[in-house]
Design brief:
Helices cover 5% and strands 48% of the residues. The protein is built from two helices and nine strands; from the N terminus they run ββαβαββββββ. Strands 1, 2, 3, 4, 5, 6, 7, 8 and 9 form a nine-stranded antiparallel beta sheet that branches. Strand 5 and strand 6 form a beta hairpin.
Length: 160
Amino acid sequence: MAKVFTLYLSTQTAAGSLYAPVDTNNFSIITWNINWNALYGGVGFQGEERMARVKYNIRSVSQSAVLTDANNSGVLAIQGIGNQYSNSQNGLVLGFINPANEVVAGGTNHIIVGDSLETLGVQCNLPYGYAPISVLLLNRTGALMSGTTNYQLILQFEME
């Protein structure tokens, strides 16, 4: 039977709250301090490998600024979780993110979206204790994206 742990992160979570972002000066790289043991709800891992498959869903806040495929398509990567194949500089790449149009009264706004909840996910080592993760929104060149804004992120860790 699979164990699934879900972590909801928002760049708009108030300071002092559980899972509030550490710094929101650049939305393309945000760090959260996570109490992983509390997330797992006391599930013991003694003698077990701490491996899981991680999946994600991200949606940015609607904005009137123009997001383009050239500047705002890329990948979602996370530093602080990884596997033997992940790059320590860019972290573990979870999948693609893309700009999308969102119709609003009087015109079109733009959002960034990405989703892998319906896939197998990416294998990772589970963190434990208090450990930070940094979420990176990287463009097609591997650099931090420009023009990003607040977003909500769901990370789902699935263990067999």
